[in-house]
Design a protein that fits this description.
By secondary structure, the protein is an alpha+beta fold. The protein has 2 domains: about 30-235, 3-Layer(aba) Sandwich (Rossmann fold); about 240-325, FlgT, C-terminal domain (Thrombin, subunit H, Beta Barrel), CATH 2.40.10. The chain contains 7 helices and 12 strands. The chain has helices at about 1-20, 40-50, 55-70, 80-85, 100-110, 205-210, 210-230, and strands spanning about 30-35, 75, 110-125, 135-140, 150-160, 170-180, 240-250, 250-255, 270-280, 285-300, 305-315, 320-325. The strands form 2 sheets. Strands 1, 2, 3, 4, 5 and 6 form a 6-stranded mixed sheet that branches. A 6-stranded antiparallel beta barrel has the order 7-8-11-10-9-12. Helix 3 (about 55-70) packs across helix 7. The longest helix is centred in the first third of the chain and has 19 residues, at about 1-20.
């Protein structure tokens, strides 16, 4: 019995340090998704819906949902993206431009940004009335064709862009096709109530029950799978931001750096006090600053040129203290 107890203690002594020293998991790679460009299929869209509907917004929203459910990436929320796009006067013509997307990605502080294009969005109807066969390509309205088979086809391409270099790191594509008899591309969705204000809710069950909705879902799912598979080609950005404490109020500090430097809400900043500056004797330029820690703040509000951080550790913060992103 005594030997058994000693064996158990020895085993616990070995196991506990192994558990406590388990390495921390690396953070998920952060991505943002721009609305997809649909200039190539613009006329088909107008023909199908009777007006200009932003199907690029619908596709990007579906992709966001798919990636969030999978959990491989951390996806920036829509509100944060829209705010930056509005501030930068981002044009819809730049949706698929890697260089413009990279600039937006830097402001959002993401590791990569996803851009895409809709290359097919229409249908093919084969009519067999009176023994003849007729075929038409393009977009159709809500009315059906008697004794016909309609095929809705959707094709989409996506690219994951490095926000520092504008380089395309991952490409993905999706194609969906759905066929039904005696209906139109918007037929089959018994609960679908159409659209309004230039938008279609692609995620609604009613739209997804239509043959066009089925094709959209199939294409988005295929593209999402390929984007997830390319996760390993994306690096985690290590952005070092430095600034100064500009003001101190009870419980908060205000820094003189913000979104343009790469900061975002939720980031932590280490606050340090410079105790000594070392200068190059030949040039009299500062070559090193010796600092001592003051505390840490977490950013709760960020604009282009400044940020507000709540104090989560430390005390005696002063104007002029040095602020920087903590070392990993």
């Amino acid at each position: 019995m005594k030997r058994s107890l000693i064996a158990v203690i020895a085993l616990l002594t070995f196991v506990v340090p192994m558990v406590s020293q388990a390495p921390t998991q690396p953070r998920k790679k952060r991505v943002a998704i721009l609305d997809f460009d649909y200039a190539t299929v613009h006329e088909n869209v107008r023909s199908i819906f009777g007006s200009d509907i932003d199907i690029g917004l619908g596709i990007s929203d579906m992709l966001v949902t798919s990636l969030v459910k999978d959990g491989t990436y951390s996806v920036i929320e829509r509100r944060a993206l829209d705010k930056v796009l509005a501030e930068q006067n981002f044009s819809t013509s730049n949706r698929a431009n890697p260089a413009s997307a990279a600039q937006i990605g830097k402001l959002l502080g993401v590791d990569a940004i996803i851009v895409g294009s809709i290359t097919q969005f229409g249908n093919e109807t084969q009519s067999r009335n009176l023994g003849g066969v007729g075929r038409t390509l393009g977009g159709f309205g809500i009315g059906g064709v008697g004794r016909s088979e309609t095929s809705a086809i959707v094709g989409i391409d996506a690219r994951i862009v490095n926000v520092d270099t504008g380089e395309i790191m991952v490409v993905a594509a999706g194609k969906g096709e759905s066929k039904r008899k005696s209906t139109s591309v918007l037929g089959g969705g018994g609960t679908w109530r159409g659209f309004g204000a230039g938008k279609v809710d692609f995620a609604s069950s009613g739209f997804q029950e239509t043959i066009l909705g089925e094709a959209v879902r199939l294409a988005t799912n295929q593209m999402s799978t390929e984007l997830i598979a390319g996760n390993g080609k994306i690096g985690v950005r290590q952005v070092t931001v430095e600034g100064l404490v500009a003001a101190v109020d009870p419980g908060i500090v205000i820094l003189n750096v913000g979104r343009k430097a790469g900061l975002k809400v939720g980031d932590k900043m280490a606050i340090e006090r410079v105790s000594r500056e070392i200068k190059d004797p030949a040039t009299n330029q500062v070559i090193r600053r010796l600092t001592s820690p003051v505390g840490v703040v977490e950013l709760t509000d960020v604009d282009d040129a400044s940020s507000i951080g709540k104090i989560i550790s430390g005390a005696d913060f002063k104007i002029g203290d040095f602020a920087k992103t903590p070392s990993n």
